[in-house]
Design goal:
The complex is a heterodimer. By secondary structure, chain A is an alpha/beta fold. Chain A has helices at residues 36-48, 83-90, 110-123, 138-142, 163-184, 221-230, 241-257, 279-293, 308-320, 335-350, 363-366; strands at residues 8-13, 53-56, 98-104, 131-133, 191-192, 197-198, 215-218, 233-237, 266-275, 303-306, 325-330. Helix content of chain A is 36%, strand content 14%. In chain A, the strands form two sheets. In chain A, strands 1, 2, 3, 4, 7, 8, 9, 10 and 11 form a nine-stranded parallel sheet that branches. The radius of gyration of chain B is 19 Å and the shape is globular. Classes of the chains: A alpha/beta, B alpha/beta.
Chain lengths: 376, 262
């Protein structure tokens, strides 16, 4: 304890914030969510705070509170912009922070996603990353009309009828990533697998980083295995330090089983954060949001509500449990991004637990990933 | 009002992002009506929408037009990209559908049935349907109501090549329908002619080759020295009477009524 290097810090940006009622707060900007100015403002706060990277959520379906499909609600943010393009729009206005958009892989050709991420890497001078997202939503499949998917919930992942479908979607995502890596290498690709039959030169503007870091959000064993096989950074959802320890152990075992024991694979913890100067203020704000939403926020990971000192304590505990960084999801934007940028970093700096801000290096270098042959 | 036939410049990728963005900025300052990112089979093929989204940051007035392959892409994803570019550029987006640009073996199933001119026409119609899915009056964001109806963005499109339905997830953008261009005369599309330009050309003689009725795209063909020549050609044109905001306005196209589809 105390000898580990300070953890990496990333922020996850989505709409008006991760709480579905966050758009109703007085300092929210619900009419600006589709403007460049809104995203540039947020990104500048994150960069000025010296954070390592930010992520941008995206999907090929309308936002919904139901895992299975559209919910018909009118009281939550609906409508969004393509994340790769938002990242490209803010790239020339930034110089240090990593930019990691989500791109769905289930319905898109690897060629298109690979070259979009490569282009972003050029535009940002080697600061791009990518979070491939598998989509199992039947309604999203109907937007493309090329395949049908059964309807099921996260709770059904392990059921005998459902587990193979889930496994197949994640295996497909893994193959998608492998094809992208070969495209980034300049081809020829020559990949003949269960879902992809790709052969040919497919010349692409080679990304400055060679392989922009691939990041995976993981809730269960099947995605842990995808991360172990194909990712550079895994974001793990968890509710306590004991679970974090189990997830790290399972992922490291899977990493070795996949023959990647010598590779750097970061395991970060994913947290929703409501942060204020003191705990009563944070609780009051969160209670108001829950009242507006009609329900206490229930999500896939721990929801932190409290003060900078409490959050810093939690991060220290979870780092002891084996994670090397954190992806913090601001509960409300811009409020919790501002408090993370200002109050959390100040507290961590006081404790000697804050990393130096990024320099001009690439995101790969920043994360300690091995350089790719033929790049800097 | 003085009629100016639209003039654009093709800006293919050459060396690096900084040079490309500098060229885009110079073309914008020179007064081009639009910048075009082509998608040539022989080039290194950066992704046009990512490139143009970055161009939106360093330009103010020029339209941002993507050559878009309709082979091996799907209307839902292209409509998302167009609407996003239009939002991020305050209404300066346009597109030029192209087909037969890619080799089938580069794609998932190498399915040759996903290409060609017939599919392209259906593709354009499907994109039009998707971009009409939001009326533009749904976003309320007041008194606890974010959108005014539960099935916001509902759409359905069916033809021999496409059968898609659901909810489009990008709200109506400033132009609603980014400007549609074509190299051949096509209903509802703005026709473009390509005029090559090189570093040794005389701007006045190039200006004499511009179309006076259709749009013209000057194509430097990867010759970096051609870009300042092209800028000089642009500077020879009379200044516009007004200060148009969107690409549609700049090209003198009718703005759309709330029910309008083009």
């Amino acid at each position: 304890m105390g000898s580990a290097p300070p953890p990496y810090l990333a922020v996850a940006l989505d709409g008006a914030g991760w709480h579905p009622a966050a758009w109703r707060l007085p300092d929210a900007r619900p009419h600006d969510l589709l403007t460049a100015a809104y995203w540039i403002d947020l990104v500048r706060v994150a960069e000025d705070a010296g954070l390592d990277f930010l992520t941008l959520e995206d999907s090929v379906g309308l936002q919904t509170s139901r895992y299975e499909g559209p919910d018909g609600r009118v009281d939550q943010v609906r409508g969004r912009l393509d994340a790769v393009q938002v990242a490209a729009r803010v790239a020339p206005a930034t110089s240090r922070i990593g930019l990691v958009p989500t791109a769905t892989v289930t319905h898109t050709e690897p060629f298109h996603v690979a070259r979009a991420v490569a282009t972003l890497d050029h535009l940002s001078g080697g600061r791009a990353g990518w979070r491939p997202q598998a989509s199992n939503r039947a309604d999203e499949a109907a937007h493309f009309g090329r395949r049908t998917l059964p309807v099921f919930t996260i709770a059904q992942f392990d059921e005998p009828d459902v587990a193979p479908v889930v496994a197949a979607l994640f295996d497909e995502a893994g193959d998608h990533v492998e094809v992208a890596r070969r495209l980034w290498d300049g081809g020829p690709v020559d990949f003949h697998g269960r879902w992809f039959d790709v052969a040919g030169p497919a010349v692409l503007a080679r990304p400055p980083q060679g392989h922009p870091p691939v990041m995976v959000l993981a809730h269960a064993s099947i995605p842990y295995r995808l991360a172990a096989r194909a990712a550079d950074v895994m974001w793990a959802t968890a509710f306590d330090a004991r679970r974090v320890r189990e997830i790290v152990a399972e992922t490291r075992a899977a990493q070795h089983a996949a023959g990647r024991g010598d590779d750097v694979l970061h395991v970060f913890a994913d947290l929703v954060v409501f942060l204020d100067e003191d705990t009563p203020a944070a609780k009051a704000r969160k209670d108001q949001l829950d009242e507006w939403a009609g329900d206490v926020l229930a999500t896939d990971t721990l929801v932190f509500v409290g003060s900078p000192a409490e959050l810093a304590d939690l991060l220290a505990d979870w780092q002891d449990a084996g994670v090397t960084g954190f992806r913090l999801r601001p509960g409300a934007l811009p409020h919790d991004l501002n408090t993370i940028a200002r109050l959390l970093t100040a507290e961590l700096r006081r404790r000697g637990a804050l990393r130096e801000p990024p320099g001009p290096e690439t995101l790969r270098t920043r994360l300690g990933l091995a350089p790719v042959r033929g790049t800097r | 009002m003085t009629h100016r036939a639209p003039l654009g410049i093709a800006l293919p990728w050459s060396t690096d992002a900084a040079s490309w963005l500098a060229d885009a900025q110079a073309a914008d300052a020179a007064g081009f009506d639009f910048l075009l990112v082509p998608d040539d089979p022989d080039g290194v093929r950066p992704e046009p929408f990512a490139l143009l989204s970055a161009a939106a940051t360093v330009t103010r007035r020029a339209g941002l037009v993507a050559a878009v392959s309709t082979d091996f892409t799907e209307p839902y994803e292209v409509a998302r990209q167009l609407a996003t570019l239009d939002h991020l550029s305050d209404g300066r987006a346009g597109w030029l559908p192209r087909w037969d640009l890619f080799a089938p073996q580069d794609f998932r199933r190498g399915d040759a049935a996903r290409g060609g001119a017939v599919r392209a026409r259906g593709f354009v119609a499907a994109v039009g349907t998707l971009l009409s899915a939001w009326q533009g009056d749904e976003a309320l964001a007041a008194a606890g109501v974010f959108v005014t109806k539960p099935d916001v963005g509902a759409f359905r499109y069916r033809d021999p090549d496409f059968d898609i339905a659901g909810l489009f997830n990008v709200p109506r953008s400033p132009q609603r329908h980014p400007v549609l261009f074509s190299l051949d005369p096509l209903e509802d599309a703005f026709t473009l002619r390509t005029v090559p330009v090189s570093g040794g050309d005389d701007p006045v003689s190039v200006a004499g080759r511009l179309s006076t009725t259709d749009g013209t795209v000057l194509d430097p063909r990867g010759d970096a020295a051609a870009v300042p020549v092209a800028a000089a050609v642009a500077a020879l044109r009379p200044a516009p009477d007004n200060q148009p905001a969107t690409l549609r306005e700049r090209l003198g196209l009718p703005t759309l009524s709330p029910d309008g589809d083009r």
